[in-house]
Design brief:
Helix content: 40-55%
Strand content: 15-25%
Largest sheet: 5 strands, parallel
Distance between the termini: 29 Å
Order of helices and strands: EHHHHHHHEHEEEHEHE
Length: about 200
């Protein structure tokens, strides 16, 4: 059985999906009331990010910490799995998902490379036989610290993580699909880059 010689890398939020899974997951996990209350409380951080005073990674880590620091990990993982299996299909872009399925049907090796947390993407990825490279949350025993255990998987970090996960020399072709500046480096890595399009 020959190894696949084509690698396919998909950004997740905004590329495979119509909207950001982070906000969608937050609302699902804590409920609408606490979600909006939390956003109001975090508005100085979100404003600082919008004005580019703090980085995407710093803003996201503060947001995650606000909502989830101290959560029991088993409870968090159960909620994340529930979201993954019940909600992700509802926010997919049909054209993007059908492109992903065509790659799988062609025997290509397909991976989601995302700045979102692996917790709420992994069940969906496993179901669709897609590999996952994403940001990982730090655990302290049975609790979430609210910090990241890895760098935020965004921008140059996407390429760094892809290089650790795959031996790129073994692939004849590399497709990459992305929709934002955070995907620029990953798109530059590809022999077939697709920016905000699927064909």
């Amino acid at each position: 059985h020959a190894m696949p010689t084509t690698l396919v890398l998909f950004d997740f939020d905004g590329t495979l999906t119509r909207r950001d899974s982070l906000l969608d997951f937050l609302k699902f996990a804590v409920g609408r009331y606490d979600f909006y209350k939390g956003l109001v409380r975090m508005s100085p951080v979100l404003a600082a990010y919008a004005l580019r005073i703090i980085s995407n990674s710093a803003a996201k880590e503060r947001l995650i910490a606000h909502f989830f620091a101290g959560w029991d990990t088993a409870r968090f993982e159960a909620v994340a799995d529930d979201y993954s299996m019940r909600c992700i299909d509802n926010i997919l872009r049909p054209e993007a998902f059908s492109t992903l399925q065509k790659h799988l049907a062609s025997g290509h090796r397909v991976a989601v490379v995302s700045a979102s947390m692996e917790d709420w993407l992994q069940s969906w990825c496993r179901t669709h036989r897609v590999e996952l490279i994403a940001t990982r949350l730090e655990r302290d025993g049975a609790r979430l610290t609210g910090r990241f255990a890895t760098k935020n998987c965004h921008g140059p970090e996407k390429v760094a993580r892809v290089r650790v996960h795959f031996d790129l020399e073994t692939f004849d072709e590399i497709y990459a699909y992305g929709d934002s500046s955070g995907d620029r480096e990953m798109l530059a890595l590809a022999t077939r880059p697709f920016y905000r399009r699927f064909s």
